[in-house]
Amino acid sequence: MPDWGTCLGSELQFRVVGGLSTGSIYALIALGYTLVYGVLQLINFAHSEVFMSGILAGMLFLNVFAGGDQTVAPFLFVVAFLPTMAAAAGVAVALERVAYRPLRRRGASRLAYLISAIGASFFMSNLVLLWRGREFENFPRSIDPAPLFNIGRVPIQTADIVVLIVMVIMMVGLDRFVQRTRTGKGIRAVAQDVETAGLMGVDINRMVTITFVIGGMLAGAAGLLYGLKFGVMRFDIGFLPGIKAFTAAVLGGIGNIRGAMLGGMTLGLMESIGAGCFGNAWKDVIAFVLLVGVLMFRPTGILGEGVGQKA
Amino acid sequence: MTPLALGPWPRVGLVFGGFAVAIWLLAMLERRIGEPVRRFYDSNERWAFPSSFMLFIVGGAAVVPAFSDKVQIELAFIVGVFALLSLGLNVVVGFAGLLDLGYVAFFAIGAYTMGVLSNAGPIQIPWDLSMWQVLPAAVAITLLAGFLLGAPTLRLRGDYLAIVTLGFGEIVRIVAQNLEPVTRGSKGIIGIPPPKVPFEGTPFAVDNPTPFYLTTFAFLLIMILVIRRLNHSRVGRYWAAIREDEVAAEAMGVPTLKYKLWAFAIGASTSGFAGVIYASRVGFISPESFQLITSITILAMVVLGGLGSIAGALVGAAIIQMVPEVLRSLPAQVQDARYLIFGAILVAMMIFRPQGVIPSRRRAAELKGEVMEAGVTAMPGEAPPADVIREPISGEEGT
Amino acid sequence: MALLEVRGLTKTFGGLQALRDVDLSVEEGQIKGLIGPNGAGKTTFFNAVTGVYPPTEGTVVFDGRSTVGRKPHQVTRLGIARTFQNIRLFPTMSALENVMVGVDARHRISVPGAIVRLGRARREDRETPGQAHELLKYVGIGQLANELAKNLSYGDQRRVEIARALGTRPKLLFLDEPAAGMNPNEKASLMRLIRQILDSGITILLIEHDMKVVMGICEEVAVLDFGQKIAEGKPEVVQRNPKVIEAYLGVGAAVGEEGA
Questions:
Q1: Domains of chain B: residue spans and CATH
Q2: SS3 C31
Q3: Of A104, A130, A194, the CB nearest to B336
Q4: Which residues in chain C are closer than 8 Å to B393, comparing Cβ atoms?
């Protein structure tokens, strides 16, 4: 039995920042799930592999510049966002074209979409397995592992700060985009009512593609940040964060952008605190139990559904 | 078979080329004679089914004298286990239309029940139970687990149910991995004894897979008959109604939740059943044997074979279990590509032939999208349901 | 005591009040019409009474029992059957199979019972197709029994839906715009069928837009507008009620005849 007094008391503070930053990564991935769900009512099971492709792309890019000790200058890390997000977006679009669009054309049932998504997920992760093998690979380091500063007794890692900052930037950017731009309105229109949106002259296919692009870009960014924070890459690395991010999306209210953020942070925090209490081995169970629990008792999530509604 | 004097990759190309041609030929053949054969079978079902069933029995039994090599009978045994699993999942996904991605959880529960109750694990019970005695216990446990998991979750829409079941599957695996005092964690349980037979000279020895195979085959036959009978009764009709239009079904007096629960529980107990036999034969189980990929593999078997078709489930299991065996002569890289091909097949099947190898007549029309399924509704052009728990009656709100 | 007694029925969806304090009763053996402009809440009324969603407020008493809080299949087994505005048959099942699902509602079905199939279950199984066939003949399409539902013509699909609802042996039948999309001949034929059903002792509540149909067969009519009942009474009287005219044609409209 955990020592509740300690793990929820004096030790709690050490878990907060780390939890929030992991949560931010979940949030960024969750946005991909939530956007696609809002527009297509599809759970993009293969999104975890889009995330993985972001990590992979980031790693490959930085490896080009990495010195013998596997480090890169910090500014290169910032530069890396571009190719990483582009690569992940590309993978997402390819995914949509190959695995989902043919089904949309044929008016397939949702079961068919889900199975196709699963197949695509498998295909992609095993492709990487064949290419890179089973071993964990190291992500190039670009920062000094020593903590940046302390709040009280709690050391604050640079990586965590970077993740949080990037997350906030992306969130604000996305919010602006969805609320203010014409394309963003188009996406919201398609999420609310596909037929009417089409009748109003909205190019559905284009909106769908853009949704996947955005989700992919965010997942790519999440991938780079994941590499920064955790330092590893493997073919199946997307699976757990993917499931957890999906949990986060549902927790916050699937289809709800702000919900994805809230859900991600909440999950990250709870997971971190839970690890402090129960140990790392049981940490993953927390996400799954939360997932099953939320879906069973409050499927609409904390903030309720809908990219179509006010986010 | 003399190995061709070619390098590994040309051989690979040849094999895949051969597969592609074979599939194309079969597709052509099916297009020609598929409908007439199906119609013939349907109209003569009274004797057509018993005769094909008899053939199946003979074929299955004939495996034993036909293959003298123990390894091959072992393979037949594994195919049998997966055929059982496939059959069970077919009830859940194919008949009732519920997407279950955590099916392996019940398999695990059955296997661990055998492991624990046979005293091979850390927990010792005062009785010396054999497989025959553990079987009903495992069936009861998994039946209960199926009801418990299903009761709160089967109201959910298709996608959500899929994820919940996936979560459940993972929870079971992680628990098995961490609950050392019961399951010995990652180390697993070894030395699970084969079943005892109440007469002299137990033939269920460790080095003899034949009785295991025959037992599994016998259970498979029974399950086929039971499930077929269910499907051809009002229960099957209710399942079809639920799949095709859940709201209308409810309005016509169908207690949808109850029937979904039953389908789910039947699937769960079949899986638990298979788990016991598997554990008893293989003698060793660990959380490694019960991963998500196995759930997905079984799903692929059902989908490939034909959702909602009993024969399809069996064919799917056979194909997916045996193809890697047939390909064993190929270089290792190709074997690793197994799951890659797998994934590609799933996608391709959904695009080009969602009804599977042996389609069930009803499901064929549904999956091709000619039909709207409530609960698992078609996508394009349909107003997004605002409500997760129930599909509102589309277009009729506020008349 | 009326067969169906609805008092103060209110249904709110988020911000929208679809039904507001509706009182309605249907006497046994009666055929009553429920009319009103689009969006007035007529189908919502059906849904709330049959348990598709629970009423926000109000009481519904059918045959002496409350239906509030019950699931649709329970309400059906109490004796209310319905059809749908957008026909909802089971598309890849035959007309006969569709009706059989309705007929099955009369039976107690258990899953283990279906496996073992003893006595009563066996008898019921044997009789179901015959009973379903009779119903199809009753609605005039016995010969289409083995056609797949999705292949039937619109009018025939309607009939199958009615046969299916009748299969559940209802005391009260809710028909949701059964004449929609039909030509005058089909409508006349439908009206004959409805009268036949009424004569066999089944009470009917009918949502319809076509005034000729309503005037032709309904003894009484209730009018909904924006979720409230604004008039009730004999069709000729209601038709001339200024509030009703306003609801359909707008404020200040002249008295006219609502056509099909």
A1: 44-370 (1.10.3470)
A2: strand
A3: A130
A4: 43, 47, 52, 84
